[in-house]
Please model this.
Amino acid sequence: MLRTIGRRLLLLIPTLFGLTVLLFFWVRALPGGPAAALLGERATPEAIERINEAYGFNRPLPEQYITWLGKLLQGDFGNSIETRRPVLEEFVNRFPATVELAIISLIIAVGIGVPLGYWAARNHGRLIDHLSVTGSLIGITIPVFFLAFMLKYVFAVQLGWLPSTGRQDREIDATHVTGFFVLDGLLTGELDASINAIVHLLLPALALATIPLAIIVRITRASVLEVVNADYVRTGRAKGVSTQVIRNRFVLRNAMLPVVTTIGLQAGLLISGAVLTETVFAFPGIGAFLAGAIFARDFPVLQAFVLFIAIAYALINLLVDISYSFIDPRVRIQ
Amino acid sequence: MNRTAHRRLLGGLAAGAAFALLLTGCQSQRDDGDPAASEPGAASDVDSTFVFGSSSDPSGLDPAFASDGETFRISRQIFEGLVGVEPGTADPAPLLAESWESTEDGLSYTFALKSGVTFHDGTPFDAEAVCANFDRWYNWTGLTATESLSYYYGSLYGGFAGDENALYESCSADDESTATINLTRPFSGFIASLSLPAFSMQSPTALEEYGADEVGGSEEAPEYSEYGEAHPTGTGPFVFESWSPGNEVVLAANPEYWGEQGQVQEIVFRVIDESTARRQALEAGDIDGYDLVAPADTAALEDAGFNVMQRDPFTVLYLGFNQTVPELQDVRVRQAIAHAIDRESLVTQVLPEGTEVASQFIPPVVNGYNEGVTDYAYDPEAARELLAEAGFADGLELTFNYPVNISRPYMPNPEQIFTALSSQLAEVGITVNPVADEWTDYLDRMRGTSDHGIHLLGWTGDYNDTDNFVGVFFNGYSNEWGFENPELFSALTEARQIPTPEEAASTYEEINEQIAQFVPGVPLAHPAPSLAFDPRVTSYPASPVNDEVFNMIELSE
Model:
């Protein structure tokens, strides 16, 4: 198994390499340069020229690509044009916020989605089933941006129960060890800091979790319905296998395969979905950072971000494949 | 079965408990938030922490290397210049210099400095420190002398050491509290320009110690110096405390401040880049105020009890004409467009409260404003006649460029302005072909190409100097306007070198008239930017040039 994982990781290298080529030229093909965004309304064409010269944007594209790739291989992602700091440093600073947000969202999506889908399937055709199908349809269609503003309006502005922005209140004055605020509070014994961080995470996580939650409900329901009617379940029942065993070992386990795939895909989407959510909640993660980078045509940040998403997807996919072999011993990763 | 039920019950209880814990945690945190902030050190029994919603991170902490509003907003709390502004106006006033005198020829300025002032690191503020700052700017080279870093010094002072165009010559410390600056040629905006945060006085010791000019690292992308990242040291009422990029900047009151300290003991600039998010943060009580309120939000916020304030307009919004378009080369066509536009209704329909109708390219408070300038009143009939005279009796088709998804202080809602104007133009038989671009593409098109027709753009003044408006627009050929007018270009260059603003006033009045007759575009309005505050903010020093120092804020609770 370890060897297989190693091989999969090695395969990642040519994939990423291909991606860097696509990415590099795609980003450069966008209209408008970073100089305009950097210099403001009254910059002269000469000034713009000077900036392009300084950043190398006016050199031939292949040359720019090779320079960029060479640096990338040494772990140098370049400097953000807007913030002037190394992109890698910016990512390391903001990464924990986004991961924390994604994990809480995933917990909400899976924790509610799987039981709800299973429950709906067991009550196939009844009211609860119809409600969950309709509800999940709404969940899929509602725009994240809109939902985030609504949640904020109700729970932060009107009711005042939850904070509207940020990761933690300033009054908390917590010690930060890892940058994961919830974990930091637990490590240092500052439980109130952890709770405060969770309180800040609730609204953005809920907004971010809605679409994956709705999708997971639907997939779980469909998958369970399919398995319940499978031959081996009927045979099991006929042979007098207990309901408990049928439910847990026959139905749930087998129904989980497509669900796990979906969860994997959704986990990747969470990180890109964070762009909108973090912007609405002024949540200082990489999503909000990317939103700013798009407007400023901050090429180094855009490139690093897409690469980063690609790696995250590849790793999550690998995890999904590994978990398959635990759920269903017939599936062995090759 | 029983066991499962039991487990489920436990799980449910645990979840319920966790949720209750969260709510109480949240509740208690919100309760003890306020008393904690008004602990010792507070000047009175108000919450002395002031939280401001910024639209972006500062671009650095060293204002000499900055040119953007969010950086300057923070700089103004930490730093002071030789010259400040009269509160509530754009006029220069003494700050670290108590007075100044210039020689008749406008080449030498002697500043009498305030005594007993020290920088945050204990370094005394004296004539040596003044010269150290001027010499620092003048001697920048390489990366530090580029537009992306030292924009203001580069553009206002003609260049750096060794540059034949350089305006600065030398600085001498005559005694501890007298400094003389010598210029190579007169510059009427010299005193006013010193009120810009880019020319704030910084501690020479700290500049040296933290390598303020050691920007770079790599040539391709400038990096902050240690100074610009974590050690800004000025003489202002607030001291830098911390900066967590993408999140917030925190300042604390300077206990050694020479002036009035005020109620605010701590300032938090929280980055919330989305405008609706800023409004919601104010409504939720998470911030005490924010800038550039969307025009659509002002009425609603006011109704809900928030304090909405307007700055006196220090902006101009105009409809520019690109004269490389053949039709626009005919002055009658340009005059016709000017007559076709109903600025009054534009202002009342789509621009924020407090906006003034424009008659020239500078706001009324700026030196050289011409009360009697030729004005093109709204007169569709005259517009039609002029068009007919120019040979467009059957109508005229023009490209109309405007930006989308952007809000600027002088142009909060370009899409609405475009719609209003194009229907007014249609009235007189001018059909427009709309071309909309995203902001950066739009700027590229305006500045880098002549591929545009009539277009929307504008400007917010940096400090009270006429050259900072009309000089910026018309001091030479540009792609935006596409015309050569040597008379106007040289008039502006000469006006800039008149020693004092008083003497320059009449020249600028003439220039404004000259521009009005040439009609390079139609000045439309001077929109007033709005700020919104929590009801507890009873007074805020709103300034047309954004010179707002938070020790002047008054709070009621």
